[in-house]
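Bumping my old thread because nobody answered last time. Still need a sequence for this structure:
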């Protein structure tokens, strides 16, 4: 396995052990491990994995290990820096992939899931765009997950915990937006 395959496998294993229903808490716990860098394409797996794990732990019935493995394969196809080069954040794409896996949505799907997932990811991208760059994989994950929480309540009827999110990773981010970051504890209220 190459480095990214090892990192994402460790993420899947860590998520599979989580019992929490708060995707932000799962994210903080797993993202603090040594196999997750401050920035990197491992977030293209991590962020959707946290949502899948929270939904499973909240009672949604599906084979968690199977969907985590499939999400890992999807996430490994996304190159790093797609936020800057492609105009779509990997955190958001990971959430979209997780939703598609949950509802078995594909490119030829004709039910409401196809457009519904795009509405969720479009909202998340709009929320990220409003904050601005440069990229921060932690800020983008928080924003994507916070956008997904009300979506899954509306779509699936599953209430996941909401919280005021405070970032503990900012000291390691040389490009932290500081006062422009809604999660930086030095500046958020």
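Sorry it took so long. Here it is:
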């Amino acid at each position: 396995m190459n480095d990214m395959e090892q990192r994402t496998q460790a993420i899947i294993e860590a998520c599979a052990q989580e019992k929490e229903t708060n995707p932000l808490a799962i994210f903080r716990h797993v993202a603090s491990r040594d196999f997750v860098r401050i920035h990197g394409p491992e977030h293209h797996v991590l962020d959707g994995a946290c949502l899948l794990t929270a939904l499973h732990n909240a009672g949604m019935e599906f084979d968690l290990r199977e969907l985590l493995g499939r999400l890992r394969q999807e996430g490994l196809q996304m190159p790093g820096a797609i936020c800057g080069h492609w105009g779509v954040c990997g955190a958001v794409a990971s959430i979209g992939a997780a939703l598609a896996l949950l509802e078995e949505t594909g490119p030829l799907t004709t039910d409401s899931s196809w457009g519904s997932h795009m509405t969720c990811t479009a909202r998340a991208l709009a929320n990220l765009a409003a904050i601005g760059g440069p990229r921060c994989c932690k800020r983008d994950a928080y924003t994507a997950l916070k956008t997904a929480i009300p979506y899954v309540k509306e779509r699936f009827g599953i209430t996941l915990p909401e919280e005021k999110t405070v970032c503990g990773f900012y000291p390691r981010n040389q490009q932290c937006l500081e006062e422009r970051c809604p999660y930086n504890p030095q500046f958020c209220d």
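Residues 79 and 168 are 26 Å apart (CA to CA). Let me know if any region looks off to you.
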